[in-house]
Amino acid sequence: MRRKTVSFLLAVALLSSLLPCAFAEAGGSDALSAEEQLALDYLGSELAKPAAVLMKSGEDVDDIYSALTWKPLADTFPEKFDLRNRGVVTSVKSQSPWGTCWSFATMASSETSILSSLGMTAAEYLKQTGEEMDLSEKHLAWFTATALPRAEDYPDGAYPYDISQSGEGAYPAENSETTTYNFGGNYFFAASSLASGIGVVKESLVPYADSEGHLNSDGDWSLPEEQRYLQSFELKNANVLPAPVSTDESGNYCYRPEGTEAIKSELLKGRAVGISFTADLSMPSEPDAVRARLLSRYGDTDRVTKEELSDFVDLRAGILSPDTLSDSDLQRFMGIALRLNNLDENPYADLNLDHDQMIQVLKSRYFGDEYEKLIAQEEEDAAHIPYLNFSGENSEIYAQYTYEHVQSNHAVTVVGWDDSFPASAFREGYQPPADGAWIVKNSWGTDWGKDGYFWISYYDQSLGGIETFEYVVDDENREMDYLSLLDYDNMPASIISSTLFEQPVYAANIFKVEEDSVLQYISAMTGDLNTSVTVSVYLLPEDALQPTEGRLLESTTQEFLFAGYHRIELEEKLSLPSGSRIGIVILERVPTADGTRYALTNTSSLGEAALEVFKARHQDAAVGQLRRYCRAVVNPGESMISFNHKNWIDWTAAIDTFGSHGDCSYMAYDNLPIKAYLYPLDEIRKIHQMENLSGETSICPECGYILRAIQN
Fold first, then answer.
1. Which of 185, 304, 589, 630 could form a disulfide with 189 if both were Cys (CB 3.0 to 4.6 A apart)?
2. pLDDT one-digit tens code per residue, 481-522
């Protein structure tokens, strides 16, 4: 995720020339004017910037707040704080046998947040409900990595979703079911899935096991499509926090105290904090789990037989002992490895490697490199000074300090802090500049670390991807779920792009209401600090092509401290009859040192075209290859933008323009992230004692809930 730095001078000159111009009408056939094309070219060049960085690193970019002014959140914080003392931290889990740390960290953070919002400890929740507060990591991981089904796979009229979004979502780079739980992920992916109605779900409904109830990596871990939109709690806010890690103009590490303050402020609110860092130790796993990850890496290949692949993976995982193999056996394995890595020639053929050398080459993650380079890289890895220090009697303290600025690769959950945790507890000779550390909950089981916990220094140079989650748990109408979620952005997002302008820029979606229902919430995505979001709802005629081409029903404004997903409650809830068409318009204002700016926020991920580009750019094993790509489905008439609130540019035209800007060509751009939440009218009236009330506006006599009836 990245907040792009914009040239404000360029924006001023460009927009001042654009404001008097008429923009192409959404759904119309008029060609874009030169001025309109200039606006889209400018926007496309800005959106290309995070795409270039993403392709360079292969990971998400986290520095979204570097150019904004930070307002202190508190005068002082306590020296020590631990959410476990409040009783709202759930038990430590184990993610084995899969690479699902991001889903485990999301659920751990969510469990604590929900308990805090409910005002219950974990013990009180168990006593009241008869089950633990335990959310399903499997549900989130599976459906985030599994695209919406294709409409052509269903009989006519049987497709269960909006058919216009058929096939949208994430896909494996190789066609293998074993890769689904090893796609990898992050909190941005998690938040975009949860915001689309995918979970969270109780563990009792979708347990972390195969279909037989076992942790067998060879078992069936798939989930039926009808479980996609199960929900036990609804997401309310997903807050992207500034990281304690920043960089100077030369790319060197800088400590950012605002990030530490933001994490502490969320912890004090009872929200455990999802955070990413660089782990240089692998999850302790049984050989079967290692085998599963290797099968995931090599995928469903036709370059070797299934028997050959199974034997080779057993060797790499340590299931097959090298001591039982002859030199001819190892030569056979060498041939398998060459075919798996698409090598036509054997770079080790003329070296007369002995038995031990062949084993070293076969087990090396640098297989395929020249022998001298492979050995040098193995020696360099062996000489690496670990970031994690086991210190104290019987390794009582596990203390992590990443002493170099590197990419994060593991997601965990912060539950507290200690300002006085000594710098001396970290590895000697590689210690942070000052005291202070986070108390962190891992997902490697209770046998690892101190009962599953460890410490991370405030000054760890790999911290990033920091997010908290808040859920709807206390609304008056929690006796029911929403009737429908109106949205078009069903693709997991790697990037939230927030482009700032001197003049207002409006984003909008047009939706159709299928049943008599109540519009209660609108949600939007922000990409900046202290963003003020104004939501306006319009009732549109049947033939309207623009989101403001109708009657303004409601307008409300709310400010959000952090970037991320945010749900906004309308002051007056709108009773909409079946067949209504509504336009929802978003205006985002961002305070900066140079005055108020206006943000256009959109989401994107690497598309299918990125696979070959990424492969060509990254031959080194340190980055590896993409395990997934995303496909977005954006249709005309769904999403639009405007610079004057009158005439609108269809988002499909904007996306077409982005494709002409280099690195944008392999990105998948989704619809604008604007959603509407509808609740069943009959149930709303019953809950709020309005069955016998009539007139345009009804007010609940007990709670003050305001419901306004809208007529087409």
1. 185
2. 788 899 999 999 888 888 888 889 999 999 999 999 999 999
Task: Confirm if 468 and 274 have CB atoms less than 8 A apart.
Answer: yes
Alpha helices in 299-423 (DSSP H): 306-317, 327-340, 355-363, 371-383
* Residue pair 376/382 in contact by the 8 Å Cβ criterion: no
Q: What are the structure tokens assigned to 629, written together?
A: 């790509």
Query: Which runs of consecutive H residues, i.e. helices, occur in 384-535?
Result: none
Q: Which residues contact 110 (CB under 8 A, 6 or more apart)?
A: 135, 200, 233, 469, 471
Beta strands in 608-660 (DSSP E): 628-631, 639-642, 649-650
Alpha carbons within 13 angstroms on the beta-carbon side of residue 80 total 7
pLDDT in tens, 355-371: 989 988 988 878 888 89
Residue 641: closest CA among 568, 575, 585, 580: 585
Cα distances (angstroms) measured from residue 496 to each of 61, 63, 110, 564, 616: 10, 11, 21, 8, 26
> What is the rounded CA–CA span in Å between residue 447 and residue 461?
27
Pick the CATH number of 392-464 from 2.40.50, 2.60.40, 2.30.30, 1.20.1410: 2.40.50
Q: Report the b/e string of 415-438 with b at 16+ CB within 10 A.
A: bbbbbebebebbbeeebbeebbbb
Instruction: Enumerate the domain spans of the chain.
Output: 95-281, 287-383, 392-464
Provide the whole-model pTM: 0.85
Q: Give mean pLDDT, residues 402-406.
A: 89
